[in-house]
């Protein structure tokens, strides 16, 4: 598996992000969809990565700078056929390491409710994320769950 910074130009990533947005819009009301489109992911405060096995896209994830000490995980997604094979775990570990390199103190994320997103909640919890109140510009929402963790110098596995 190779993780690389992505310029968001390839048709594979367009297809995966389209799938992601369609899925989020199908299961959440419009005001509760916080997934970013291609233009939003190209903002200078966001770094976007993809994971590959040769020419096969395994997944993606992004890191948004909220402040000089606080980052937000965005756009974590793996194709349906590639789920539970380690790509999400590898991308999450990569994002955490980059957040540490940037000297962030805190890393947070917004995801869907546990009833719909239980595997994602378990993945984030396995990396030390815990539930928290809304952060940044988010507000309480029954269609969202918020998680955060402090960053240390220890390495996750």
From TrEMBL:
Keywords annotated in UniProt: Acyltransferase, Transferase
InterPro entries associated with the record: Acyl_CoA_acyltransferase (IPR016181), Bact_Acetyltransf (IPR050832), GNAT_dom (IPR000182)
Top-level taxon in the UniProt lineage: Bacteria
Pfam families noted in UniProt: Acetyltransf_1
Tagged with keyword Transferase: yes
Positions of the N-acetyltransferase domain: 1-152
Protein name: GNAT family N-acetyltransferase
Organism: Variovorax robiniae
Lineage: Bacteria, Pseudomonadati, Pseudomonadota, Betaproteobacteria, Burkholderiales
